[in-house]
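Changelog entry: the DNA-binding protein record was regenerated in this release. Current contents:
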Amino acid sequence: MEGYEKKEGFEKHNRDEIYTEAVRAGKRTYFFDVKATKKNDYYLTITESKKRYDKEGNFSFEKHKIFLYKEDFDKFSGGLLGAIEFIKSANAEKENNEETFLDSEYMVPENILEGVESESFTNVEFEDLTE
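Regenerated structure tokens:
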């Protein structure tokens, strides 16, 4: 078995990560890894990793990977930023609508009490309810 440790004339292309960044987000971790092709062009891999448990309690990692090459960077980032802006805008509009609904839910229209004298209401205190 001699000679199998290193093959003569075989040069390993260095495709190790040139740069890596891990982002933990809740139950997921995203890895942004810059790697090099055989021609030493850089590309990006984006990996989503989620920890999964089976019925016996053993865990494994479920991974999804995207390979992004330099010629697609501008289009990809434009699409990603556009989608993020859309979501932020839609959520802000939704939150504004919910706040308006909650604010108006307990508001009594001004004209509903027209003609009702204030003496016709009884002031009830919480202490009065316990007797």
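The longest helix spans residues 73-105.
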